[in-house]
Every structure is written in C-alpha cells, then in structure tokens.
Amino acid sequence: MGPLVIFTDLDGTLLDHESYSFRMALPALDLLKRRNVAVVPVSSKTASEIRMWMRQLQIEGPFVFENGGAVVIPPNYFPFPVEGSVGANGEVRVSLGLSIEGVRRALGEIAGELGIAIRGFGVMTTQEISDLTGLTGLELSFSMMREYDEPFLIEGDRGVDLIGEAAAARGLSLVRGGRFFHLSGGCDKGKAVKVLAELYSRMDPDITFVGIGDSQNDVSVFEAVDRSFVVLRPDGTFDPRIPEDAAERVKGIGPQGWRMAVEALFADGGF
Q1: Same-domain status, 106 and 82
Q2: I need a labelling partner for 135 at 20 to 30 A (CA). Which of 83, 126, 201, 220 fits?
Q3: In this structure, what are the phi and psi dihedrals at residue 138, rounded to the nearest 5 degrees?
Q4: Do 111 and 231 share a domain, yes or no?
C-alpha cells in the first residue's frame, strides 16, 4: 500500500459520542503510527479543543477546526512555504470562513426574520452548554472559544429548511452534526480538506486520501478524498442524510467503527 493520509471527524467517530473515549480505536491508532500514516482531525471543535485531543491521541500534524473555518499547520511541517497568517508559535493558519461575529449576527437576523426560536453558543450559558455536551472544566471553556462556526439548537427542529434557505441567501452554510446544527460562512470541511490534500500532494502525488465520519456534516470530506467510510451512530444506525454511495458503511459504533475502517484499509496486507 502506498502513502496514506486519513482525515477524520472526532465527535461520534474517533471519539465516543457520550464518553469521548477513543479506547476502541487504539489498536488502529497504534498501527497507523507504526506505518507513519498522518491522521488529520477535521472537526466542528475549536482549535483549543483539537490541540488538547491531539495531545491525548498522541498525534501530530495539521488539523481543520470549526467545520472548515480554518486549517492549522505546524511550523515547518511541509518542506515549502505555506501562505497564511503565522502565529506566535510558528503555526500557519489558513482562514477560510467568516468570523464568528458575522456568523452570529446573521443567525440572529435569520431567527428574527423567520420568527423561529434559535439558541446558539453565543447566547447559551456555560451550564447549558455543559448539560448539552457533557463537557466540564477546561474542555468546556475550550469549546466556547468559537472563531468561525456557531453551534445552535432550533426549538422543536422547526423550520430547518427555511433556516437553510435564509443562510444560503447570505452565502452561509447550515449543516447538522451529532448534537447541534452549525452555521458557518464560506467554508465547509471538504474545502479545508482540499487545501491540505493539495499541499500533501506537492510532497507526493501518489498519496491516497481517506475520510472517516459519522454524519451529514462529513459528506463534503467524503467527496474530497479517494476513499471514505461512515461509522454507525450510538443508536446503531447510519445517518440517513448520507447518500448510500458517499462512503463505505462499517458496522461499528464510533471508535469501534473507526478501527474497523482502518482494518478495511489494510485488509489486503493483514492487520
């Protein structure tokens, strides 16, 4: 098998939906480390959250945060300069989305125009977000450091299509993840994956790109890679909003399915 890069969702995919455990995926993570396969998180999580999880997962390299709002690349990761803003620690950020201020302003306008009760992270209390996500302490604080993407809930899920139309009219994108709807501007996970795929391909044009996810929010990733896998949701079903031909189905929930997807990649040579 030639070089691989795996772009992966986190919540409900590599991380368990409820406990955030990745224990079931550890054998696959260990194999990928031995094979020097890059594992690139592509998540709705904030940059601070993803950095924390990458430390726990013991993976290094680029990542995509807040549903494609930006790509972060470690200093000197690629053997050529990458255009973008450079942070104090030498990381390069390639911004692709509208700022959170603009997204939240648009969300408020849409709610007012449609007369639909919408609650986003920007107006939720810390306790509300903790109750909805199960996060506490530092993880909870990190989850609230939004820069590009606003998670929100709709009262009774009423008017989803109308909200989507109003968002599109403003050049914004509405997607649904595992827990929340997400509003962002001018970006999605797939666009960010394409940015990184182009950079990786400059190093080796024969790299195979793989995507693993669990929800409609990951379809744009599936469309941007060579091979893709969707894992089961906690209730044992596949997200019905994912087209049948968008990704290979693996019959394992969350991180167990993630391990099974990696097993499938290496099936010919043994796992």
Answers
A1: no
A2: 220
A3: -65, -40
A4: no
